[in-house]
Every structure is written in structure tokens, then in C-alpha cells.
Amino acid sequence: MFFDKIKKVFPKKFKHFIKMQLHRGDSYACPICGFQSSDWAPVGVDFPVLKEKMIIGGGRRRAGCFKCDSDDRERLVYLFLKEKLRIFNQKDLRILHIAPEYSLALKMLKIDFAEYVCGDLFEPGYKYPDYVKNLDVTKLPFSDKSFDLVICNHVLEHVVEDRRAMNEIARVMDNYAKAILQVPISENSQHTYEDSRIVDPEDRTSHFGQPDHVRIYGQDYPERLQECGFSVNRINISGEYPRFGLNPKEDLYVCELLRG
Ligand SMILES: [Zn+2]
Fold first, then answer.
1. Which segments in the chain show pLDDT lower than 50?
2. 103 C-alpha vs ligand 1 centroid, how far in Å?
3. What is the total count of domains within the chain?
4. What is the CATH number of the domain that holds 253?
5. For the whole model, what pTM was predicted?
6. Element (H, E) at 168
7. Has residue 125 been placed in a domain?
8. Residue 209, domain extent
9. For residue 177, how far is its CA from the centre of ligand 1 (angstroms)?
10. Helix (H) / strand (E) containing 194
11. Is 8 a domain residue?
12. How many Å lie between the centroid of ligand 1 and the Cα of residue 37?
């Protein structure tokens, strides 16, 4: 009776609650919310091109947290920020988070950083949380050297002028700042595939694996970053955290400004 009432008033929340109970376990743990589970929820969508090009960090996979909805890509960035960069006790940091992931942003918002700016390019019909401001990554509304850390996780594959975005990110980074610039990458393509004539969402899906993707990055991705003024440190930490449901193949692209 009590559950029937909740089910009626909060159908979505009830479903979420039941799912959490069914998947409780001790095989895995979400580092963001602490939920311990027997497995992960399915996330992502499969398209033939994603398999054909062996896209790391794309496609249908069991990678979602049943409690906070974080996925493998979000947890990877969170763990890197927490365990490797140790940012959560560096309150003097000025941070720009582009297209912020919900669970990660909530964690960051709890810390009283010197600056924590969240921004996304607002699209009609979508609602954005109050802490997110409308901004275009190819035209950042900040002066030079404004940030110590930029987080841009799976964004550049949506941006037609990605080199302009990379240049803008470099511009707003202070001398010793870092940027985490994650994108889905083809494991078996050396070269990035893009074609500006492909604009129809269906065509983009068949060519790039998602209706709003404009390219598939190849193994030459770090070179493109280097051309825009970054030195790129390609790091894999997934093996260190087997319980946290990371993609063993997903490398981090940790960028600093080229010096000299
Ligand atoms: Zn979680």
C-alpha cells in the first residue's frame, strides 16, 4: 500500500529506487556516490560505425551507476582529478568545466574553489541547471590566462571548429594550467575522419556514430592538440581501479601549454 502510493506519486523515483535495490552488491563501487553494485547499468547507443572503427568510450556498454547515473567516462575524470591531481584540497584553483557532467559538477560545487565556472552551449528545448552558463567553446567569454584547470569531457567531437575551440581553451589557461580534453577515439584509425558536407543528423549517425557528432578522432588526436599549442600527456589509470567500472582502453589526454 505504502509502496503503491509512492509508485503513483513518484513513478520515476520509484523505478530508480527499485533498480538500485535489485543491483546492490559488492563487486563494484561508484567512486562518485559510493553506491556498491553487482553490475553496471547499460548506457550509450550502438551504431555499426562505432564497432567498425572500434570507438573507445562510445557505443552500448554496461557502465552506468544505478544511483547517480555517472558513466565510465565521468568516473575516470573524477578519479583522475581526485587521486592524481588532488584538486579537492586545492581551494585556490580557478576551474572551467565545459558541458559539465551532473554528478561530477555536484561534487565540484561542494568545494569552495576560488572559481568554478560551468558552461555549455544552450540548445533550444533543453533545460540547464542554474549553475551552468550559456557559452560557446569556440568563443570563450574570458580573458587570457583565467583558469588553472579546464575540464572538457567528450565535447570536441560535437564542435565543427574544434581547432578554434582548442585554441580558445589554450588561451584561457594560465601558464601552468592543465586541461583534460577527452574525446571518443577510434582504436583502428590512424587519421581523424571528418567531412563538413555531412550535416544531416542521420548521415552523421552513420558516418560518425551519433546525430550530433561531426567527426571520428583517430590516433592522430594528440597531434591536433599539439598543433594548437598543447603538450599532451596520454595516461591510462583504469587498471589501478578495477572496482570502479572504468573502460580499460580509455586513456586520459592531459594537456598543458607548450613552453619554449
Ligand atoms: Zn554513482
1. none
2. 8
3. 1
4. 3.40.50.150
5. 0.93
6. helix 162-172
7. yes
8. 40-257
9. 28
10. strand 193-194
11. no
12. 10
